[in-house]
Each structure stands twice: as structure tokens, then as C-alpha cells.
Amino acid sequence: MLFVIVLIVLLALCFDFTNGFHDTANAIATSVSTRALSPRAAVLIAGAMNLIGALTFTGVAKTIGGKIADPLKIQHGTLVVLAALVAAIFWNLFTWYFGIPSSSSHALIGGLSGAVVGAAGFGAINYGGFRSIIEALITSPIFAFILGYIIMWILRLLFGGMSPHRVNRGFRFLQCFSAAAQAFMHGTNDSQKTMGVITFALIAGGYQHSMNIPFWVKILCAVAMGVGTATGGWRIIKTVGSKIIKIEPINGFASDLTSSAIIFGFTLLKLPVSSTHVISSAIMGSGAAKRPKGVHWGMAGRIVVAWLITIPITGFLAALLTRLFLI
Length: 327
Hints:
The protein has helices at 2-22, 24-33, 39-54, 59-67, 77-97, 104-120, 127-159, 164-204, 215-231, 234-243, 249-268, 275-290, 297-325. By secondary structure, the chain is mainly alpha-helical.
């Protein structure tokens, strides 16, 4: 059992690492695209702020670890977590290789849910908790699109009469701070998910009896996320930073501000969101407010398809892996 727990922790840290470089684009794509920050500076800032954010909150971790299923009632709970992590890591690497900004959050939640079903059937899912998580994942990008549109509309109203050079210079400076804020918010939500999964495994393995997140789990997950972020995910940065819309400093700032507000709001509600969904939707919203024809809706459609298929694919893969592990 101890060997399985150690393996789970290692895989969870690998997932956090892949989550970090997979989702680096969320925090820095706009600031790099507008040249507000150099790639090196942007990655270092994002890594540091992700680390700090990951140590700040634990509410989302408790939601992931306890609301999808009760770890005290799941037989072979450690194998469930093992299968979920393998499925999620595979999907992260697959989508990273092809430059698809899919959701690490969806991958992990889909993997954990599928693994629970594979081990104990559909009756083991806590549908109330699972529904609240899915609702947060669905509504957060919708809110991000709307808020991004509103913020960009207000900024255009306030600064539309100024010279483009002056506007770009001012908002390029502000993006240095908005990118850092977004990276911090990413850490407050995304890293919590892996903390929750490790704690789920500790409870299922009999090493812990409550959803209080151990300090060593916080540290390890925060460091893994920060190092992964510092490694960078340039393929996805290219997609998010240039293929959705042509980003300028003003709508880059609007997108960063929007996504930071949405992620932090859901973190306070102890609900997980996909930072990939949120920032992509914020970019679309700010772009639509400025020039709807400038949004590459075809690429947006590809991203939405990736969002829709992630949970079913990782769920099926994790369920299959769980059945194999139990043979």
C-alpha cells in the first residue's frame, strides 16, 4: 500500500508539472504576444506567482477530494486515483503535443470520475457534488466571455479617443501586473485539484481520516506547479496568443483582468474552474467587443470541441485502466 501511495504522489506531481507547462499559456500568452513581457520574464513571473497562489487556498482541494466521491467508501481507492492520474497525464501530453489548449482540470475531474465508476459503479458518484463541479466548469467560461466583452467595451469607451501609440504603451505596462495577477489566480485554483486528489488517496489508503490538506502536500504541489509553469508551453502559447484573435495591449489587459476576476471568484466559492476555458473565453469576449470579425471563430470552435471531449475521453480511459488494475 505504501508503494502505491508513493507512486500516486509522484504521478500527482508529474500531473501538476504537466499542468504547469500546459497552462503557462493562460497566464502569459497575452503579455508575450503584445511584447509587454519577454518570454523569459513572463515565464519566471508566472512560475513564481503560481507557486505563491498554490500555497494560499485549500477550498478547491477539499471539493475535488471529497465531493466527487467519498474516499472512505470506495474500495481500491488508491488504484482509482492511480488510474485517474495516468489518464489525465496522458491527455495533457497528447493535447500539449498538438498545441490544443484543452483543460487539465477537465482531464483530472474526468479521470477521477471515470476511475470511480470503473471501480465501484455509477452509484459511487456523489451526483450533488459532481453536478456543482460541472456547473462551475460550464458557467465560468460563459461568465468570462460576458465580462471580457463588458470590460473591453468600457475600456474602448474610456480610451477610444486617445492615440493608439499612447494607449498601447500604457496598457503594455499594465499587462506586466495583470499577467502576474492571473498567474497567482491560476495557482489558487489549479494546483488545489492535485492536492485534493493526493488527499483522497491518503484517506482511501488509511493514512488520513479527514480532508484537511497536509502541509507537505501543499508544498510539493505548489513547487511542481511552479516549476512546470517556469518550463513553459510554447505550442499552446502560440495558439492562445495569436490564433484566437490578434491581441493588442488593451484587449490583452482586458482578458487578463477578466480571467483573474472569474478564477478568483470561483476559488472563493471553493469551486474548480478551467483556467484554459476562462482565459480563452475572456480573449474571445474582449475580441468580440472590439471587432467580432477579428475573432478566429474556427479556432474557437476547435477549442470548444476539445473542451467537450476531454471529460468523456479521460473518464473512459481511467475506467478502463481501473478495470485493468483490478484484474
